[in-house]
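My main concern about presentation is that the manuscript never shows what a single data entry looks like. For the editor and my fellow referees, an illustration may be useful. For illustration, here is how one protein appears when written out as sequence plus structure tokens:

***
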Amino acid sequence: MAKADIQVTLEGDAYEGNFPLYHPGELIQGSAVVEVSKDTDCRAVRARLMWHTEGKGDRDEGVIEEQVLQEGMLRAGTPHRYRFSFTAGETPWSYTGKLITIIWEVEVMVDVAWARDPRGSQLFILRPEAR
């Protein structure tokens, strides 16, 4: 597999610290730029809205939605630009605690045969609106 550089950017006006902030059911829009070091025949370039846990115990994760952005050849020397949009999940909300952390992200991956899939992601915070 050729080396791949993947940059994921989320759009939005609200931030909590350095992370974009979204509320359940809100539209998440963004873009990805994928650059490969040599021509690469890939099964697909995929964007996934997902969450996972970190901390004590087993890792848990959920994929809320996945989109295929491209199938086939990625040419070297040209940045490949993609747009995506998802609807934010309802739960679980982002959380940081002593034993467990729940992390939300949009991940973009290049699915290639017989090789580790290059990935890039952008973390964000999902929490309900304050009342």
The domain at 4-126 is CATH 2.60.40.640 (Immunoglobulin-like). The chain has one domain: 4-126. The radius of gyration is 16 Å. The chain is about 0% helix and 65% strand.
